[in-house]
Design a protein that fits this description.
7-stranded antiparallel sheet, 0% helix, Immunoglobulin-like, 50% strand, mainly beta
Length: 400
């Protein structure tokens, strides 16, 4: 990022100021130098970058008291005007676009006249980012053919990309903390020599060098170091959420802490042999949480990097598995689907446009024949889900 402090081009780190040369109007001679005395027109003051805001950025303009500063966005034409007060310094808020570079023009004026416009550039392009620092791999929690890769030293909101030994992308994730975890795919049929991977971080278009690792690699934490926990299971039952997690090398007195999206602690539990379970009120909508290992309190509180996880919406029901489609048949322009699932669950059939075309409750044996008024136009156009409470299962595509 770059930002030049004044017209002489001194750099302070976030934007670039450069003069704009405007041609004389058609048919008019350029004004003589004697007609524009230095004392008659205020000179453009100094502009400094003051920081980013949720809506854009702030510039500081320094100039004669009472002068008016006008900054205009080149892209949108939006204008911000400020009068320089006593102290010769004023904040000028500007809006930034979605790209990495925004340009503006600045003019300073007073009752003596108006300065020449000058160009300002706010450049948020990242020149380079460091390679992620590998921490560990874990194949115990994600399931067969999956591996959790933990890295640190990454930028928040960077995209982490994992590739296998063949160069194929097998996992991506957005870093929510300087330590982050990516779940990647691997083939259990690969030979040990083929279980090699690389991970990079992509931040605002700047891609780091690759960090290599192998399946099963791990680093040993320093004694007493708090290690990012692994969320082993989440469960919602009877309006209560239960989260179980584990860590390694946790010192005596360490606890598992879970915070909600807003940073409020919702549950804490002491770790025993590196494991703990916390219980708290289940969310009524899909919600994100962060789990940390903590030690101490107040000013002496130590906290490990956090791992985020999501609890699905619901008020106490586990997410049901997708139903099974046993048989299908078409007759007289109708489709009959034999569905098997949870006894008493409600089976819902949808078409390719996600419209509900049939609903039926499963029997005490978990079976039902669902009749759809029209035959599907193509294989896979119809799907069926089941719900034993307020949470619906994933769909099962219906083949014919």
């Amino acid at each position: 990022m770059s930002f030049t402090k004044n017209l002489a081009g001194a750099c302070i780190g976030f934007a670039l100021l450069s003069p704009v040369v405007l041609p004389a109007a058609s048919g008019q001679a350029a004004p003589a130098a004697s007609a524009r005395a230095e004392s008659a027109i205020p000179q453009l003051g100094v502009f400094e970058f003051a920081g980013f805001t949720p809506d854009g950025a702030r510039l500081k303009a320094r100039g004669p008291v009472g002068s008016t500063v006008t900054v205009t966005s080149t892209a949108t034409g939006d204008t911000v005007t400020r009068v320089i007060p006593a102290g010769n310094l004023v904040d000028v808020p500007v809006s930034l676009g979605k790209g990495s570079i925004d340009t503006f023009t600045a003019v300073m004026s007073s009752d003596r006249g108006e300065s020449d416009p000058r160009a300002l550039k706010v450049d948020r392009t990242v020149a380079s980012v460091d390679a992620p620092v590998f921490v560990s791999t874990d194949t115990s929690f994600p399931g067969r053919g999956k591996v959790d890769v933990t890295v640190t030293g990454v930028k928040v909101n960077a995209t982490l990309v994992v590739k296998n030994a063949r160069g194929a992308v097998v996992g991506t994730a957005i870093a929510r903390d300087s330590t982050a975890r990516v779940t990647a795919d691997w083939d259990p049929r690969d030979l040990p020599s083929e279980r090699r991977f690389t991970i990079v971080q992509d931040y605002d278009g700047a891609v780091s060098a690759a960090t290599p690792f192998r399946l099963g690699d791990t680093t040993t934490p320093a004694p007493g170091q708090l290690v990012i926990p692994t969320v082993e299971s989440t469960e919602i039952d009877g309006g209560v959420a239960r989260v179980s997690a584990s860590t390694t090398g946790a010192p005596a007195g360490a606890v598992l802490s879970v915070r909600d999206f807003f940073g409020a602690v919702v549950a804490r539990a002491p770790l025993s042999e590196g494991r703990a379970s916390v219980v708290f009120s289940a969310p009524r909508s899909e919600s994100m949480y962060v789990a940390n290992v903590e030690l101490g309190s107040g000013d002496d509180l130590e906290r490990s990097p956090g791992i985020d996880f999501t609890l699905l919406k619901g008020v106490g029901d586990l997410v049901p598995v997708a139903p099974a489609v046993k048989t299908t048949a078409s007759s007289g322009g109708r489709t009959i689907i034999d569905v098997e699932g949870i006894p008493g669950a409600m089976a819902t059939v949808r078409d390719g446009d996600d419209r509900v075309v049939a609903v039926k409750k499963l029997s005490a044996t978990g079976r039902a024949s669902v009749v759809v008024a029209a035959a599907p136009r193509a294989a896979g156009e119809l799907s069926v889900t089941q719900a034993s409470g307020v949470i619906e299962s994933d769909p099962t595509l219906i083949d014919f």
